[in-house]
Amino acid sequence: MQPNVWAEIQRYGIETEPLPVVEGLRQAVVSGGRVVDLSDDDVARAMELLNQFCSPGTELFPEPYTEAWGPDPQGVGDRSFREQLETVKADPVLYDWLESMCCAVALGPLDKSAVTEYLRTYALSGWSAEQASAALTATKLVKGTRELIDGIAGQAALADIRLNSHVTRVVQSDGEVRVELAGGDTITAPTAVIALPMNVLNSVEFEPRLSDTKRRAVPMTAFDDTAGMQEALQPLLPGVEVESIVGWDWSNGPLSLGTWCIYRPGQLAGILPDLRTTEGRHFFAGADSAIGWRSFIDGAIQSGYHAARHVDDYLNSGSQ
After folding, report:
1. Helix 116-124 / helix 92-106 crossing angle, nearest 10 deg
2. Most exposed residue of 78, 152, 255, 287, measured as fewest CB within 10 angstroms of its CB?
3. Does residue 73 have a cis peptide bond before it, meaning omega lies within 30 degrees of 0?
């Protein structure tokens, strides 16, 4: 369901496999302060509820790989996850399951996270909650994402790839772009593609300054602290022993300041077009501002195609 990343997987001959299904998997939800086990029939009903929750995406995103919106007489495009949840009537256990799914996507307060981000994923997956689940979890790269990155980087024969090179300032002047690094090095080029995550865009100084919309755009992102997991799980799973936890505090990482991009209610229509708008010799790309699979590798690749085409047009137009 993610065409751009699949094209790269096939281009570099990267091996994939189905995500293993755990035998005897226990399916449960915390509801009313206790753990409630779910039968297969319960899970089927829960997926029906998720389809109901996401159903406005059918009309709102009739062509999800474009910027076009469909009719929205009820104003769903401005709703938060919480506001959309309030339109759903269901058994408390299934309702709590649905809320947990929303939390897993938003990774932040549901009243401050735009439900359009989930509805678009639903639309991109053939307007099906089951297909969306498969698109997100059914397949894995055997050797991990590193092999995909190395495959793409290995084909970039003309590129000078620099890691651990923190950009502090980007200046447009005298027919070029000058990129200044924290270590003192300077790189110049006719154009620059800015692919910074939205949360860290303001950590780099731009001269001239970027548009007000770009500088104000901060999506909704968060990441839970794993400290105290053992204590937190005891009321739900008495006697459970947490052997290890692996995680990364994306919210406090200086080069990310958050997890994947989730827009705030009303941001999508108001700021997304400007995030891709060229400013002089600066062209903008990245998963945060992609049209289709926003916040995913697929979206980053699509956005890169878009920026590269416009850079090529600019350099061949003679306007530089």
Report:
1. 90
2. 255
3. no
d(CA 89, CA 98): 11
Buried b (16+ CB within 10 A) or exposed e, 55-84: ebbebbbeebeeeeeeeeeeebbbbbbbbb
- For the segment 292-318, what is each residue's pLDDT rounded down to a tens digit? 999 999 999 999 999 999 999 999 987
Tally of helices (H runs) and strands (E runs) in the chain: 12, 10
What is the tens place of the pLDDT at every residue in 34-61?
899 999 999 999 999 999 999 999 999 9
Q: Tens digits of per-residue pLDDT, 62-96?
A: 999 998 889 999 999 999 999 999 999 999 999 99
Report yes or no on whether pTM surpasses 0.70. yes
b/e burial code for range 145-163 (CB count within 10 A of at least 16 → b): eebbeeeeeeeeeeeeeee
* CA distance readout (Å), 67 to 219, 249, 272, 276: 18, 32, 9, 12
Check: CB of residue 262 under 8 Å from CB of residue 109.
no
What are the tens digits of pLDDT across the range 240-257?
888 888 878 888 888 888
Cβ count within 10 A of residue 222: 15
Q: Closest by alpha carbon to 92, among 137, 36, 48, 51? A: 36
pLDDT in tens, 146-186: 999 999 999 888 888 999 999 999 999 889 999 999 999 99
Judging by beta carbons within 10 Å of its beta carbon (0-12, 13-18, 19+), is residue 186 exposed, middle or buried?
A: exposed
Residue 303 and residue 310 in contact, taking contact as beta carbons nearer than 8 Å? no
Radius of gyration of the chain (CA): 22
Beta strands, E only, 34-97: 34-37
